[in-house]
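Researcher: For the annotation table, I need structure tokens for Putative nucleic acid-binding Zn ribbon protein. Please keep the output clean. Sequence:
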Amino acid sequence: MNKDESSEESTQREAVEESEEPTDLDAAQAALNRMRQAATSRGDRRVRSAAVHRNQKKAARQAGIPRSAIGAARDPQGLGGILERLVAERGWSSPVAVGSVMVQWNNLVGPEIAAHCQPESFEGTVLQVRCDSTSWATQLRLLSSSLLARFDADLGAGVVTKIQVLAPTAPNWRKGGRTVTGRGPRDTYG
């Protein structure tokens, strides 16, 4: 094989390689592209090289920006800030406020009311509260306007617009899924 033949074979190989179009992307490249798209949708920006990053830091220092704020976009972030941003982006403010009413009930109404009245459900902007006695139900009805003002101050306006006070429930002797119509067995009570 002489030199002309080997160069001719190499040019033929290059021509064949150029004509073949890749039908499948490399799995690693596909994963990298998906991660880049996810980062772009989160609002993260891509830094091209370490030299560009160093130049940005140098320019920021010369401009008098404090060192702690120079790499702020790339620094680790606190979990609270990330969750606040997630709640704001997804529009979850009212469901989070509902959860905070249920979880922070003792702090919002005080320990004395919380000992006798518990939130039962939250539908729309109406909070249903069950009290353990009729006197506490009456007391909570009287305090509802001041509680609504406290909820507006602590949770935001419009989260809770009405407090529906439910009376205490009577004891239920029915056990299980099946019941007997009518009087039922009375052998226990004579």
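Researcher: And a one-line annotation?
Model: Confidence is low (pLDDT under 50) at residues 19-23.
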